[in-house]
Amino acid sequence: MNKRTKATSITPAVRRAVEERDEHSCIFCGRIGRGEGHFIKRSQGGLGIEQNIITVCRECHHQMDDGLARELYLIKAENYLKGIYPGWNKEALVYKKGL
Known about the structure:
Radius of gyration: 13 Å
Number of strands: 2
CATH class: Mainly Alpha
Structural class: mainly alpha
CATH topology: DNA Binding (I), subunit A
Helix content: 40-55%
Strand content: 5-15%
CATH architecture: Orthogonal Bundle
Strand order of the largest sheet: 1-2
């Protein structure tokens, strides 16, 4: 596994922490979800850290990644994460080669 793949993967410990933080509920609709939604997509170098991962149900995860309302989902997710992590910053969520 290369460094970028490792950095963007969600470890079981991060998944559990995110699900506990979000009370095992999708942050968008409240249904049962999994801690597997990257705010910054893996394909864009989004890190597999708690500050970049949200709990989502399958439907909302699809909508957030590929739906017509993607921007609305991202705004809600950003506001949610900013409310939990003081100083939350999008730039800190992206893999940087060599770091």
